Amino acid sequence: MKIIDRNGRLFGAVSVIDVLVVAVVVVMAAALYFKSIQAHTGASVTERDITFQVRAMGVDDYVAEAILVGDGLYDQNYSSGGRAIGEITQIQVERTPGFKLADEELTDGTAGLLEAENTVDLLITVKGRGLVTDGRYSVNRVYDLGINSSRNYWTKRAEFKGTVCEILD
Predict the structure, then answer these.
(1) How many C-beta neighbours within 10 Å does residue 19 have?
(2) For the chain, how many structural domains are there in total?
(3) Are residues 93 and 116 in the same domain?
(4) pLDDT tens by residue, 122-137
């Protein structure tokens, strides 16, 4: 008895093409299985909570009253992935009246901070989620946080200028 007959069947029962197709399917299934159970190499990327503080100086009283714990904090000028960069968890009044930048230069040619009536200085604590890699903080994976970065922030009810003064770890 021949191994392959005239019709291309192994031992006269199974086609050679059928055997090749079954072998390819088995090899592909095995490759997918081993790839899925194999340990991934490289650094894993996981998001974690990032808490930071924003100092807002010279905020008008009516604006300060509109900033509430639980509100989302947004940045109108820099991309934050379309989501809030975090949720306000605490608001502290640091000083009343607050300081505002002088409209005109002082006599020595410098600009200074002056007390302004009906204003407060706020320290706003914000909790967001993002990545921390090599000492760099990225909220929502795209919004870079940096100490001393001054930005225009807004909530549902208020808009103010603030400076990131601390990133809590």
Answers:
(1) 12
(2) 2
(3) yes
(4) 999 999 998 888 888 8
Q: What angle do CA 120, 56, 98 make, to 5 degrees?
A: 25
* CA distance linking residue 163 with residue 100, whole number of Å: 14
Q: Tell me which of 21-35, 85-99, 110-124 is least confident.
A: 110-124
> Does residue 43 lie in a domain region?
no
Establish if 156 belongs to a structural domain. Answer: yes
The number of residues in the chain equals: 169
Residue whose tokens read 């399917």: 25
Q: Which pTM value belongs to this model?
A: 0.66
HEC per residue, 89-141? EEEEEEECCEEEECCCCCCCCCCCEEEECCEEEEEEEEEEEEEEECCEEEECC
Domain limits for position 100: 48-168
| Residue 50 pLDDT | 92
